[in-house]
Design brief:
Spore Coat Polysaccharide Biosynthesis Protein SpsA, Chain A; globular; alpha/beta; 7-stranded mixed beta sheet; 234 residues; 8 helices
Amino acid sequence: MKLSVVIPIYNEEATLEELVARVQAAPYEKELILVNDCSKDSTPQIMAQLAEKYDNVRCFHHEVNKGKGGGLATGFAQVKGDVVVIQDADLEYDPSDYPLLLRPIEDGRADVVYGSRFLGGKYVRVHLFWHYLGNRALTLVSNCFTNLNLTDMETCYKVFKVDVASKLDIRSTTFAVEPEMTAKVARMRARVYEVPISYAGRDYSEGKKIGLKDAFIAVWAIVRWSPLFFRPKW
């Protein structure tokens, strides 16, 4: 089983090299698809160095900022593996959790696996209260529309069999991509599993990018992509 690890990147010069090293240490055949979303720091230069160092790293660049959703759409269009793993470019999520994430797929039980920060991984940094509450509230609203029973819809760690990933047709450009993907997975009636993951969350002084505005956008996306309004072509 070959992994396609899609990594959307925006101004992550401080963590990108270490993150890629951690992904490379995961015990799977893999390709790394790095998508630079018009970073203003030295991210493009670091990406070029990583592509020279590792023969399984491929790099793509946006000339204008397209948001996380745009980065994922670009990356998903390039996958050549059997399973797609979404990986943020910071160090909040630990690639050593890949075996946990992939086991339900390897066992033939799941088409999609979400890594939950709220099920009790090896370690979890204490969350900012309002950020935690917002995540749980958005997950609850999403569950009401999708009829899934997720604990962490907004998690970065989402893993898809490639036939599911190829049908997602990501349209959102912002963090609304999380509820969009969740609604579409529910619409497909894919077999969805959740597993506990580790989480070393950042606060806003450390570069966390999501805020209150993104919560309102996510609520609109939950409604927009719900089965009541969205009719996919597949």
